[in-house]
Fold this sequence. Notes:
Blueprint: H1 3-43, H2 46-50, E1 63-65, E2 76-77, H3 80-87, E3 100-109, E4 115-123, E5 126-134, E6 140-147, E7 152-159, E8 163-175, E9 180-191, E10 195-208, E11 214-225, H4 237-240, H5 252-262, H6 270-294, H7 300-309, H8 315-324, H9 328-341
Antiparallel strand pairs: 1-8, 2-3, 3-4, 4-5, 5-6, 7-8, 8-9, 9-10, 10-11
Amino acid sequence: MNNKSAITTLLAILLLAGVLQGCKKEGDASTNLQEAVAQAKEGGIPFLNDLGIDVKNVIADSVIDLSGDWDSIPRIELNDTLAATLLKDVRVAEMKADLFEASIVAVRPLAEDKTLIAFELFVGDIDGVLMAIYDRQGKMLDAINAGTWNKTLPYSMVEDGTEEDVLKDSAICRFTSDREFVLNRSVCRVSSKNGVKWRMTRDYNYTVTDNGMLSLEVKHKKMNGKFDEDDPQKGIFDITDLQRYPQSCNGLMERLDTMASQIGPTNEVYMDFIDQLTRIFQTNGQELFAYMSGKEQNHLRATFKAVLAEGFLLREDLDATIGAIKDPAIKKYAESEVKKWGKVPHAPIMPVGKKQKD
């Protein structure tokens, strides 16, 4: 064998070894995770055990499926102390009043001793599912609002003055690797006379990064049927996608900026966008100011100015957010911008937007 042939053969062997090693690592990760799931079913999750929470009967394998009779779904109701311990770092504007109930409906071990917990939350008259990532010590690293699951609500329109349609949603979470999962959500409008008028399906693909933060990619969007011209849900799904971004804001501000460049005051979903921007400020106001201060040419400034000018935010909330900013440059920017925008009303938050399905 000449030198050239020997080198070619050696490279081929090294390449094959690398491929086999990669397959072995993937196989090892899968095996380790299966073992972690099995161990959790037998012995629970250590940090939850330390809190006295037995989750063995809600450990998920590859799927979290909460379909069927909602009242019959296994759940672990949390008292106020346990709910406060596990959810103290969750940013939900309505939870500031501390008037909420929480239950654990699913738990799933992930890579590197991280754990996903799915909570059923009731905040006033609002209910939904929140998914949070925890480290081995029980510290929450990130969270997502997964919306309502398998609910039926009256539609906001009455057709022909005689019948009222309903809006039905469904959701399921599938784990595709030891650090990836897909939240599939489907929303449809159903008429008592004609059945399903339209169905919108979205796949929200999440990846748990090494530091426990979540990244989101909306990969699949499918529409069956079509909207009526006056349907209040027309054009709104790109807006409600904003609710699925993680609490850590990974990718959210860039998406908001893009949408602000596309949705002006004459757009039919403008008020819905304003509504979402207001809610995002209530939970991630510091990140919003940080993004605007770091990117001089952005489209959020004008839109956020409208939020303030129309009284959609309390002056007290605005001042509290600015006061909590630790970075001197960002705080100075926020104070300067708000001063330019004029007086912000000391008034209750006004209801905005059309009724929409979460």
